[in-house]
Amino acid sequence: MRTSLTDALPYITGAFLGLAVLAFAWALRLFRRSRTDAYWRKRRAAGRRGLRLVTLAVALFALSGISCAGTLAVSWLGEKPPTPTSAPLVAMDSPTASVAPLTEPPSVPTWTATSPPLLTAPPETVVVVVTATPAATPTPTAFPTFTQEIAPQVTQTAATPSQDGRLSIIALDDRISEELQPINPRVTFVAGTPRVYVFLRYAGMSAGLPWRRELRRDGQLVESTEYTWGEDAQGSTYFFFGSAEGFAEGSYEVRIFLGDDSTPAATAQFSVLPAP
User: Fold this and answer.
1) pTM for the full model?
2) Where are the domains of the chain?
3) pLDDT tens figures, 45-79
4) DSSP codes of every residue in 112-169
5) Which CATH number is 166-273 given?
6) 58, 52 in Cβ contact below 8 A?
7) Distance between the two ends of the chain, CA-based, in angstroms?
8) What is the bridge-based pairing of β-strands 250-258 and 266-273?
9) Computed from CA positions of residues 89, 90, 91, 96, in that sequence, does the dihedral angle turn out positive or negative?
C-alpha cells in the first residue's frame, strides 16, 4: 500500500502543477481580451472568466504543493529501518547416551537440533493526513469606462468576406444606459456635447469584412475611419463620435460603408444647435 502510494504521488503532483499552469495561462489570455476586446460586454465576461481561472490555478498550485509535501513525507517515513526484535530462547533437551550389553555393539547417540522460530515484525501502517487550505478568492475589479474609439474585434480568416451584410442606424443619443441602450434618442443636440452615440442593428455580416464610418459637418468630411468586422453575424452594437471641445453648431451626417462599395450602407443626420 505504501509503495503504490509513493509511486502515485509524483504523478498526482505533476498533474496538479500542469493543470495549474494551463489555467493560469488561459486566465492571462482572458485578461488580455478583457482589455482589448471591442465590446464592453465581452470584456466584462472575459474578465470574470479570467478571475475564476486564476482562483482555480491558485487552488491547483496549492494542491500540487500539498501533494509534493506528502510525497516527501511518505518517502522519509518509508526509509526508517524497522525496530529489531529479539527472538525468544527455546530450551533444548540434553542428549542422553545409553550403554548396550557387551554382546551388542554400542549404539551411537543421535543429536537433534531444534532451531528457534523466526519472528517477523508486523508491517507498519503509514497514515498521511492531507489538509487542503482553500485559496483566497480574488476580488473582481471594476472595468474602465468606454474608450475614445471602439472598433469591432479583428478576426483573420482564410475565407473571402462576403459583402451581403445589412445594417441600419436605429438611434442617436448623447448618453448610454448600463444595458448599452440609448436613454433619450433624438436627432438634435446642444453645442458643446462631447459625444454622440450611434446605435446599429445588423444581419448577414461575415468576419473579416472591411467597413468604414464617416462623419460630415455641413457637407465637409470631419472623420473617416476604417475597421474590420468581428465574428458576430447578426445582432446590435454601437459606437460614438467624440470631441474634446464638444460638437460645434451645424448639420451633421453619419455614413457607414461596407467593403469597397462607394454607396453608404446606412446614413443618419443630426443637428447641433446653439446652447440656450
Assistant:
1) 0.43
2) 2-78, 166-273
3) 888 888 888 898 888 888 878 878 877 877 777 66
4) ---PPPP--PPPP-------PPPPPPPPPPPPP---S---PPP---SSPPPS--EEEE
5) 2.60.40.10
6) no
7) 87
8) antiparallel
9) negative
